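Here's what a typical entry looks like (Collagen-like protein):
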Amino acid sequence: MKKITFILVLIGMITLQSCEGPEGPPGRDGFTVEAEVIEVGNVNFTPQNNFEFQIFLNPPILPADKILIYRLIDVDGGQDVWKLCPEYVFFNDGTLSHAYNYDFTRSDVLFYMEGFDLAGLSPAVRTNQIFRVVIIPGYGSNFRMDFSNYDQVMAMLGLSEANVKPIEARQ
């Protein structure tokens, strides 16, 4: 009886090894999507441009893609320090001094400042700002991590400083 059971189990295992499930949906041939990092430098927020700066994404991003924006806030020991936007800066009493914010569509990103007296702010916080736009492919938008850490985001996406492109290079 043990030999018959063993033989039946062996035949069952061999039979199940060769089974296949239903065919999945067809893929998109020749279509790859990769994360991108675009650097936008020398951004000036002035009364003349309504404290806004717009870039155009050419080619446009895909509908499911996500965007993260980081602003260069410091260089510490030769290492860039990036802060995730929106970024709010408050006075000591807790009222808003100013903020760096953005919105985006598939074809553009609008960077803008918010606050009560933007023209009265020091030029150091309004001019020559550097931003990085990280485009995360839609298939990767379910990553669970701290997106405020720029270095972790870059590592997760398999990107390095060599992958950072100035906005002109993307067009």
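Residues 32-170 form one domain.

More examples are in the samples folder.
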